[in-house]
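Cross-check.
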Amino acid sequence: MIFPEKRLFARIVLGPVAAMALVGAVVSCSSADATSADAVAVGSCVQVSDNAADAMKATVGDCSAATSNYRIVKLGADCAADNAVFNGTVGDAKNALCLAPNFAEGNCYAEAGKRPAEAVACTAPEATFKVVKRIDGETDELLCGADATQFRTVPDPKTTFCMAKP
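Predicted model, tokenized:
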């Protein structure tokens, strides 16, 4: 025998709970798809965690974070001479990317030729340069000052990196 009160209880309580679970699942799937689609978009920043020629790895990060050391300037491996070539995984997907520096002021890096420079401790023997000054909105090496022994400019977004030995 079915009691009407139980059926009413199930409709009032379980109905909204099931609807919320369905909405949560849809939102969760939608946001995961958007994140993975934006992961390798031009203009996004990445933290290169391994620059080994045969096993490059990176994760997408916030461009204002000191750990996001490169900005994606082009999808594909046909890069301009002043861009680093990345062939590896970003998250779980294989990618070929052209990267421009997004170095943080005060950080040190180990130069790696056409591969992305690796962020290292300034006391590490492999450290080849330190960013002594970062100037956003300008591409003018004359703004660097006497403590800089080299510079690097990026046209978009306009940035000047003033560098010296660590």
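Strands lie at 45-50, 56-61, 70-75, 84-90, 93-101, 108-110, 118-120, 129-136, 150-155, 158-164. Confidence is low (pLDDT under 50) at residues 13-38. Passed to J.P. for a second look.
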